[in-house]
Design goal:
The chain has helices at 33-43, 57-64, 85-97, 180-188, 208-225, and strands at residues 2-6, 27-28, 31-32, 48-53, 73-78, 102-106, 109-111, 126-131, 142-145, 148-150, 156-165, 193-197, 202-204. By secondary structure, the protein is an alpha/beta fold. It has one domain: Spore Coat Polysaccharide Biosynthesis Protein SpsA, Chain A. The strands form three sheets. Strands 1, 4, 5, 6, 8, 9, 10, 11 and 12 form a nine-stranded mixed beta sheet that branches. A two-stranded antiparallel sheet has the order 2-3. The chain starts with a strand and ends with a helix.
């Protein structure tokens, strides 16, 4: 199975750190967010990972050259000075991803999710991993009804930034589309997107406050392991 790790964002809410360091290369306990997600994918059996980049891209390219796991292929895609957006990144990488379902993972999440879900039917075009709503997203993004993701629900959950997608989703789409969220909602409306609610470790490291929270989580986890 393959995956794409979305790593091209500017990380503006993490300034001034991201003036000098791209968000995916921010380290928590001496390991970058990008490496943590690559490692998790690899340990789950993924053997080809595409990483896109734009902001401070040379640092990402150099860092990826230091990653070496047996039988792992990493494909680096530079998008130019302006990021292509979450959907644009996938269109840009689709030649590498067109063969089968693939994982899409935001580079700035900290999680212990295991990427071992398999598609359940040919009708399924996507599988989304949802999480209980954090404080910064109290209204959630999607509902979940008997394993089927829905756009409208009294109880909604937060999209984790982790999804398993079919390349068929992108065949007839306008390649100028930047938002993966818009494409997902279109397919959700057709009742052909499944989902799971994940209760494990998950944190969107999108702000300075949440970066500090992530560091605290790792410190506590390290203490508990001693």
């Amino acid at each position: 199975m393959k995956a794409i790790v979305l790593a091209a964002g500017k990380g503006e809410r993490l300034r001034p750190i991201t003036n000098q360091i791209p968000k995916p290369l921010i380290s928590i306990d001496n390991k970058t967010l990008l490496e943590r997600n690559i490692e998790s994918l690899y340990l789950s059996g993924v053997r080809e990972i595409i990483v896109n980049s734009s902001w401070l891209a040379k640092q990402v390219e150099v860092f990826l050259s230091t990653i070496s796991y047996p039988n792992l292929k990493i494909v680096y895609l530079y998008e130019g000075e302006s990021p292509l957006g979450t959907a644009g990144a996938i269109f840009n990488a689709i030649d590498y991803l067109r063969d089968d379902y693939f994982w899409v993972v935001n580079a700035d999440i900290l999680t212990n999710y295991s990427f071992k879900h398999n598609k359940t039917s040919s009708k399924q075009k996507a599988h989304l991993i949802l999480v209980p709503n954090p404080d910064h997203n109290p209204d959630g993004d999607f509902g979940l009804n008997d394993g089927i993701v829905c756009n409208h629900s009294d109880q909604r959950y937060t999209f984790s930034g982790i999804s398993l997608l079919s390349p068929e989703m992108f065949v007839d789409q306008d390649r100028e589309t930047e938002s993966l969220g818009r494409i997902l909602r279109d397919f959700v409306e057709k009742d052909i997107v499944t989902g799971d609610l994940f209760y494990g470790e998950w944190l969107d490291v999108g702000t300075l406050e949440r970066l500090n929270e992530a560091k605290n989580k790792i410190e506590i986890s390290n203490l508990n392991e001693r």
